[in-house]
Amino acid sequence: MDLVLIEALEVDTVIGVYDWERTLTQKLRLDLMLGTDIRAAAADDDIARTLDYATISARIQAFADEHDVALVETFAERLAETLREDFDIVWLRLTVRKPGAVPAAAAVGVSIERGQWKGDT
Ligand SMILES: Nc1nc2c(c(=O)[nH]1)N=C([C@H](O)[C@@H](O)CO)CN2
């Protein structure tokens, strides 16, 4: 399987378990590996035959604008579900970091994999 990458994508969203977090937007930093087969797109040199990382990045910011949840776990799970519904993504790894949430750490967050990894094609 091949991968389309989106690294260190920053989005603003309302997220957090504490009352003060409900009143502001915070930055999340996202890394995505999107499983697909790039051969048809490469053969035809055609954006329509691959996962368009620009379109997907815009969709992620729209998702962040529309959603307001407590946990980064919820954000990650619902975003993965949305992307897999909206695009032809057979497998993905999504890492969501919340920089600054724990001042002593560079970032904290979650990483999930969803879908079926297809090897040796
Ligand atoms: N596993 C998690 N732990 C914590 C989360 C979270 O989303 N997942 N969130 C918080 C607070 O919102 C924190 O980020 C505020 O600084 C604490 N722990």
UniProtKB/TrEMBL annotation:
Function: Catalyzes the conversion of 7,8-dihydroneopterin to 6-hydroxymethyl-7,8-dihydropterin.
Protein family according to the UniProt entry: Belongs to the DHNA family.
Keyword Lyase: yes
Pathway(s) it belongs to: Cofactor biosynthesis; tetrahydrofolate biosynthesis; 2-amino-4-hydroxy-6-hydroxymethyl-7,8-dihydropteridine diphosphate from 7,8-dihydroneopterin triphosphate: step 3/4
UniProt name for this protein: 7,8-dihydroneopterin aldolase
Organism listed in the record: Halomonas ventosae
Keywords: Folate biosynthesis, Isomerase, Lyase
Residues covered by the Dihydroneopterin aldolase/epimerase domain: 4-114
The protein's Enzyme Commission number: 4.1.2.25
One GO molecular-function entry: dihydroneopterin aldolase activity
Pfam family, one: FolB
GO terms classed as biological process: folic acid biosynthetic process; tetrahydrofolate biosynthetic process
SUPFAM superfamilies named among the record's database cross-references: Tetrahydrobiopterin biosynthesis enzymes-like
Catalytic function, reaction form: 7,8-dihydroneopterin = 7,8-dihydromonapterin; 7,8-dihydroneopterin = 6-hydroxymethyl-7,8-dihydropterin + glycolaldehyde
Cellular-component GO terms for this entry: cytoplasm
Record-linked InterPro entries: Dihydroneopterin_aldolase, FolB_dom, GTP-CH-I_C/QueF
